[in-house]
Design a protein that fits this description.
single chain, mainly alpha, three-stranded antiparallel beta sheet
Length: about 120
């Protein structure tokens, strides 16, 4: 019997991370070609990271989300904006845990979980 190929597990984690972040970008109506390129760059960068630390595969979705969020802030502004706070200055959600499995978008101002990474489309605005 052949041993499982660890590369396929890593690729599955990377593909899942890409899909989750793209789903959130689509939900926010910001999935333009140049933004999708940011996702691809983040996945490429994290591929090297997860190859060095295969046990971190379950953390990749949150890390890719944070990478894209950071790049969008540099180029375009805050993303994703908090849909939970109706008043005050618009502010971005944060990914928690910063390095952990099962990442969620949270509002640091209200102290609430808004949605799992990849599920912003299910949040009513």
């Amino acid at each position: 019997m052949n041993a499982p190929d660890p590369t396929s597990h890593l690729e599955q984690a990377l593909h899942a991370a890409r899909a989750l972040v793209l789903a959130d970008l689509v939900a926010g109506d910001v999935a333009e070609a140049d933004v999708v390129s940011l996702v691809e760059d983040a996945v490429t960068h994290r591929r090297w990271w997860v190859e060095q630390w295969p046990q971190g595969a379950e953390f990749v979705a949150g890390l890719v989300a944070q990478d894209v969020q950071d790049r969008l802030l540099e180029k375009y502004g805050r993303w994703p904006l908090c849909p939970a706070c109706g008043s005050g200055d618009p502010h971005a959600l944060d990914v928690e845990p910063e390095l952990g499995a099962d990442p969620h978008w949270v509002c640091g101002k209200a102290g609430i979980v808004v949605a799992a990474v990849g599920s912003l489309g299910s949040v009513s605005r």
